[in-house]
Amino acid sequence: MVPSRSVAALLLSSLFLAPACAVRTSERRMAPEPPHSVQQELGYNDVVRLSQEYATAQGYEVSDVAEAQQVRPNYWRVRFGLAPWGSGKLLDLQFDEAQRRVVGSTEVEASATGGSGPVMPLPSGPPSR
């Protein structure tokens, strides 16, 4: 009777193992991790700092950062308030994060844009004043 016990144990264990092996598992694909907020914050800070350095080198007296917005990957629009504070003059800079340089600039009146205004397309070519 001993052989029948081992056959029974084999049959019983196969009853449990067969369905477990037959169950289809969902596919797991490696999804890229989104950038960490620290990386995003460092990118923002670099863009603002380099844009401010550009504005100062061009002779502008920057009073504050009115807005910094990533328009599309690696392209930012940074808007500075110009001195004197409250004058209503703004400096709009387009910044290429990949090249780490300003690719366009425009001086605008705050009233002409209605505040921060819509996102402007990036110009191609050298920066203009």
TrEMBL record:
UniProt region (Disordered), positions on chain: 106-129
Compositional bias of kind Pro residues: 120-129
Signal peptide: 1-22
Keywords assigned by UniProt, alphabetized: Lipoprotein, Signal
Superkingdom: Bacteria
Descriptive protein name: Lipoprotein
